[in-house]
């Protein structure tokens, strides 16, 4: 069995506010490959959480900070799976079209079973969920939280 891959988001400018996410290539190999590729290119560094809805989720991964942008890579084919959307679930954001995920993702604050089977789950927060809960709220937040640095190990 391969070593566990993690996607770490430093949300606090070196202050130890790391969110560590266990990547799940067993559920969504294409999405995990994209997250890994973008993180290794520094794509997520400095990107804000542009949509943070209390009791629902925090969304980031758009370099424009508007929710309308993505990477220059082609959109991904959906890899919907049976993994539930519960607290700490990491899933890919997309438009109404199932095969439109690109770079944006969201982290659930609590159970959101109405999303199950409709969005691609690719990871689960292992530690640092308190930092996700502490992100400034809004669509967009007045002073959005951001990913200072994203790494995969």
From TrEMBL:
CDD domains: cyclophilin (cd00317)
PPIase cyclophilin-type domain segment(s): 6-153
Species of origin: Erythrobacter insulae
Protein name: Peptidyl-prolyl cis-trans isomerase
InterPro entries named in the record: Cyclophilin-like_dom_sf, Cyclophilin-type_PPIase, Cyclophilin-type_PPIase_CS, Cyclophilin-type_PPIase_dom, Cyclophilin_A-like
Pfam family, one: Pro_isomerase
GO biological process, one term: protein folding
Keyword terms, alphabetized: Isomerase, Rotamase
PROSITE patterns: CSA_PPIASE_1, CSA_PPIASE_2
GO MF annotations, alphabetized: peptidyl-prolyl cis-trans isomerase activity
Family according to the record: Belongs to the cyclophilin-type PPIase family.
Disordered: annotated span: 60-79
Known role: PPIases accelerate the folding of proteins. It catalyzes the cis-trans isomerization of proline imidic peptide bonds in oligopeptides.
Gene3D superfamilies: Cyclophilin-like
Catalysed reactions, semicolon-separated: [protein]-peptidylproline (omega=180) = [protein]-peptidylproline (omega=0)
EC number: 5.2.1.8
